[in-house]
Amino acid sequence: MNTRRKLFAVTLVLVAMLIMFYRYYSLKYTEQAILDNVTSRDGYTLVNQQEQVPIEVFIKPEWIPFKPNEQKELNEKLLETHNTTILLNNVWNRGNDIYFSFHAEFNMKYKAGEFLYNGIFNEDGTISSPSPGEITIYDKDRNKIPLGQQGIGPGADFSFGIQPLDQKRIQNGFYIKYTGYNLYNYSKK
User: Domain for residue 32, yes or no?
Assistant: First the structure.
């Protein structure tokens, strides 16, 4: 009986240590923890290296739902630059427009690195509204297409809609140029 109690106590201590290690690791070393610490300047210096860094991607026609109320969950990787991956998250034909949502993922390094973000990180750890930037779309022949509704966030995400009147112009795919990202450089203090 005494041996069982000792084994149980040792197991309990090991489990508690494992939980504490996991908690410590997830608060310091995961990409989300590093991003949170960098952007709040908790142990990191953060410098806005360049404003309005342009990105440009092509949207393939097979990713576009032309039928009303059709939605495509894609998570299609479009671009990797400055340790930031831009994904076409989903596209939804809402009837009154086709709405494109983009998601940014970060490859954060613990000691130092860089990333793109469409907000402004203030010295006090707060984030200001998105940096001024523009979403411009072009057909395959580089003719500009008007945009409908636009959105920024959450995080470094962005989105926009294309009105029914202009949907024929995107049937062969189209280009997006977005200038709302800032290039940030960070390092451990």
Answer: no
Neighbours of 142 (CB within 10 A): 8
Q: What is the pLDDT of residue 124?
A: 84
Q: Read off the tokens for 80.
A: 């990797």
Would you say residue 166 lies in a domain?
yes
pLDDT of residue 164: 94
Q: Which domain holds residue 111?
A: 45-188
Q: 3-state DSSP call for residue 67?
A: coil
Q: Phi and psi for 26 in degrees, rounded to 5?
A: -70, -25
What does the alpha-carbon distance between residue 94 and residue 112 come to, in Å, rounded to a whole number?
42
CA–CA dist 75, 12 (Å, integer): 41
Positions of the chain with pLDDT lower than 50, given as ranges: none
Domain membership of residue 26 (yes or no) is no
- Record the tokens describing residue 145, joined without a space: 């297409």
Residue 30 sits at the vertex; the CA angle it makes with 26 and 35, to the nearest 5 degrees, is 115
Q: Is residue 54 part of a domain?
A: yes
Indicate the number of domains in the chain: 1
